[in-house]
Amino acid sequence: MAYLNVNIPATYAQVRREYLYDLSGHVGEVEDCIIFGMASIPGHALLFHAIMENGAIFYRLPISAFIQRGFDVKKVPRMRLDELELWNCFSYYPAISVYDILGSQSGKYLGKDKKWYEGNYLFTVDWAHPESNIVDTDHSEIPHEHKCAHIIALSNGNYAAQPNNRVIWSIPSFTVKDEVPFDWKVQTSEWNVENTSKWRTEDSDKFFYGVEEKDD
Q: How far is CA 19 from CA 54, 63, 67, in A?
């Protein structure tokens, strides 16, 4: 698991140029870029790294700074960062996964405005605490607080980062039911198979310990 910075699948995109000028001008302009990395800082939104066509690299831009390649910036709706991404990072230790079952699949997420936004799956960010000798001050491993972030290329040209409980995926050969599980409950249990004294291994050199020997 990486600390602070992590590779992500190379994503050809456009960056809104005002983010290259600290929001001081160039609104409505874009430059082609490749988003190649990400920084995870607790208390901050996901921050992405991109290289421009002139070879310059710009670090730590929010997901709202980017739109997809091939979209006209004038036709891509401006969405607030908190509309595109629901939660800040949960630790300095992100993991990036591209789940095969979701690869190239479409989905939709329920926004703060109670509207559904459709898009295609790109990859997933998840977090954990790395090492028992470091004090854990974050929420990445608390069952009812943990969230992942699915990165989605929205059909309106934006990108979004949304957790499981805001997203419905479409796998045409399997997801054949239309109901949304609004009555499901947050997972609060911690599952452990070694927290009981009712069972222990036997003090022997048997390979299959705990198995009674039977005479033929």
A: 16, 11, 12
